[in-house]
Specification:
Layout (H helix, E strand, L loop, with lengths): L12 E4 L6 H31 L6 H18 L2 H9 L4 E3 H34 L4 H4 L2 H27 L8 E2 L6 H5 L7 H34 L4 H29 L9 H24 L2 H14 L5
Length: about 325
Amino acid sequence: MERRHAHESNVTEFVLLGFPTSPGFQYVLFFFFLVAYLVTLVENLIIIIVIRLNAGLQRPMYHFLASLSVLEICYVTVTIPNLLANFLREDKTITFRSCMAQLYIFISLACTECILLAVMAFDRCVAICNPLRYPSIMSITLCLRLSAGSFIGGFSIALIKVAFISSLTFCGPNVLNHFFCDISPILNLSCTDMSVAELVDFILAIAVILIPLLLIIISYFMIIIAVLRIPEPGGRWKAFSTCASHLTVVIIFYATTLFIYARPRKLSSSESGKLVCVLYSVITPLLNPLIYCLRNNEMKQALKKTKQMTGAEGF
């Protein structure tokens, strides 16, 4: 049998199966994802605007929160608009290059969020464990470098992952049992030895997920020790309450991400797997702004102040 070279591929496009249901329920799903997308955009844009307009929020914690909001906007935009279009059209194909581009951007943003959440944990750790030195340690220069480093690290790691995946041969079938181009459904369609690509993907997934998670755990361990040393119960609660929103987001994000990506073997594209993907790629970006705003008194006050400044009654 003639051996195919890694760069050859008979597949020029994929079919995104999405959520195969009755036509009527397709419109229900379209409405759900459309509302989720628009609300996510509005929520995160409000957070970015509020942080930009309020001098009291010009601190590292809120700089990172604004970066996270930018990330969430990009996160949903890379997947949901194409999903909405597929609900309304018969042709649900996506070209091979477009699929690889979507895969790269999505993985890049996911990797960036892992790193950024670790950076935010480090920021809270410095603020609580070294409050007097916090302004000098977390300078604006360091904040910008940490934010930029999160994006550079995330996009660089994703480039390696996608380079190995895109070099595989795809001979058919070309139906992706998913609503966007994700790693496992694509690997399932490869017709050549994918052991190297799968190993590289797994090692990098472990590195970009577990290393930031380990740093987060260490940061919170140090935070807990520092909080327990505070003599007044009210002071302990006030100190730890500044971390509550971040910790909630970390738990939701990592619980779903570890379920999907931190496995040595390719996942089967099951319906339950797609539902988990909806949770971390759609629901989590929708909930994150609410978590940060509802549990943060400074953000609540800033929202009220911005509403008064702009005269936006519906803001």
